[in-house]
Amino acid sequence: MPKLTAVDLLLFTVDPGWGADVVAAGAAGIVVDWERRGKHRRQLGEGTQINDDTPADLSRMRAATDGRLVCRLNGFGPWTAAEVDDAVARGADELLLPMVRTPAEVDRTLDLVAGRCGLGILVETQDGVAHAAELARRPLSRVYVGLNDLRIDRGSSELFTPLVDGTVDAVRAVVPGPFGVGGLTLPEGGSPVPAWLLAAELVRCGTDFTFLRRSFTADMAGRDPFVEVPRLLAVLTGLATATEVEVVERRAAFVAAVTGGLPVAQPA
Hints:
The chain is of the alpha/beta class. The protein has a single domain (8-258), classed as TIM Barrel (Alpha-Beta Barrel). Helices cover 45% and strands 15% of the residues. The chain is built from 14 helices and 8 strands. It has helices at 16-24, 39-42, 55-64, 80-89, 103-113, 126-130, 132-136, 147-154, 161-164, 167-174, 195-204, 214-219, 225-239, 244-258; strands at 8-12, 29-33, 68-72, 94-97, 118-123, 142-145, 179-184, 209-212. It has an 8-stranded parallel barrel, surrounded by 6 helices. Strand 1 (8-12), helix 1 (16-24) and strand 2 form a beta-alpha-beta unit. Helix 1 (16-24) crosses helix 3 (55-64) and helix 11 packs across helix 14 (244-258). The mean pLDDT is 91.
């Protein structure tokens, strides 16, 4: 799968006009999110985003854009075969399997997909992290580290600790294909960690793609995607040309921001 930019951007949306514009402005594709089974219970009180996207939404987004269309399924279970068939029939280019814990779940899903589209996985549990090297040997379209569910699975209060303690770097090191983590919004957004500083960290650890979700859509209110998406991509491209000294300095600033250091101004 060729990379379109320094870091490909995948937008979570079921709004056909909005999604088509963001892709036309430079994003790599759209994610339609079917994951709901057990998620309300798992994320109760966490303030996370839980979508209620439907099969009809997937069909609607397929009609709206020629960009890459990704469907996040529910975690593996007796329902997976039907979900795979439905998503493929509605035109998904790729499926995402969340909450992966064992290689067997991935192998069985790959058998169900049977080469009809790509399959990516979300590593967002301690078991998934522990099996990362084995999981990454499968013929996957992408591997994404999900920070929210990993934080919950670890019983942690800090979202970005896996980027600080070496967990993300360790998973990245064993993934030969497209790798993703985190999510971005406009460079001047983000709290308590500035978005531009998170972007610098994603570039540093070799991220190939990331997601645009709730904060991006909120921050884009009243803004033109044909201005803002290229601007975000330009920032990512600029970060990819940083000197070794700049990389070290921005890494230190990111760690300080995550661990309670002072806010850091975006470079001019």
